[in-house]
Amino acid sequence: xxxxxxxxxxxxxxxxxxxISRNRDRYHVVAxxxxxxxxxxxxxxxxxxxxxxxxxxxxxxxxxxxRLQATAPDIExxxxxEALVTAAGLDDVDCVMAGIVGAAGLLPxxxxxxxxxxxxxANKEALVMSxxxxxxxxxxxxxxxxxxxxEHNAVFQCMPDGFVPGSGQPEGVTGILLTASGxxxxxxxxxxxxxxxxxxxxxxxNWNMGRKISVDSATMMNKGLEVIEACWLFCVPESLVExxxxxxxxxHSMVQYRDGSVLAQLGNPDMRTPIAHALSWPRRIDAGSExxxxxxxxxxxxxxxxxxxxPCLRLAQEAxxxxxxxxxxxxxxxxxxxxAFLERRLAFPAIPEIIESTLSKMTVRNADSFEVILEDDALxxxxxxxxxGGVEYRRNCS
Length: 398
Hints:
Oligomer: single chain
């Protein structure tokens, strides 16, 4: 089976290539893509020998081309957003791992769906930005959509036999419980959040993730985006999706049924498990994950999320209820705010303030075309960037 890995140098991409390396009799890499990480992509190219390597950044592509000229001249190096789309729709690609973080992953993921490829969806922003249109593209292209996020993959594993994401509300299901670790600041006094550094926010207690998604976990915006994604994938109203704080990150999510049953998927916090499940579904393959030791865990705790501590969760839920391009605006503003925080231009508690202010200033439109969605995405980024420049949002930023 030929695979394109979108976002090969990120945490999802690295884990995907690890799973592939353990199952070389089943899978081979056709194309790898990255943004600017030349060194890592060069190493991956030498190990997996794809036909194509794509860099989003033109200068990085030229550096990669020079690096591979002597050792792997048969690998064609491409660059730019159009090349990313091309890599997702190649004829000899049987499956696409959509692992690009943020809005940048929307167009290549859409191309994979349009071409009828099985899409392993780790890029939740594609559904958050354009859920209805994206799901329509999946149906029209007769593509298969398999969730890779640990929570949604867990829900998928707990769904009735024969259920396919996007096929309608599953019979007998009365609730979806999305678990959340609570991130690194679950118990941090609120008055200390202004002094939080990017390094602290990126130090997740359980998961090894990229910087952007780590900050989203710390603010619980990640969980808010996952609520929206769950509504689209499993065709349920938001009222049936509940977030549960589970600090151990052992139960990855649960599904409630009409008869009173609750099914849960458990495992160590290792993204290779959901990746392997999605990659081989409906079979099972070696993921390289350590077996779960229940006696070592000892206990499982649960608590409701604190909406005062995590306003981003509320903002995501409100955006879903507002409909239209509200979730597009939410996602764009969050990406701008998180980037500013990581660059030390914004205090940690100002992230939700930027998002809420952007939502209040923007006009929500009907999300009836990708042109409208991309326009509102750009407008929201401009608005959020202007707000980030305001002195009031930079207080106590270190």
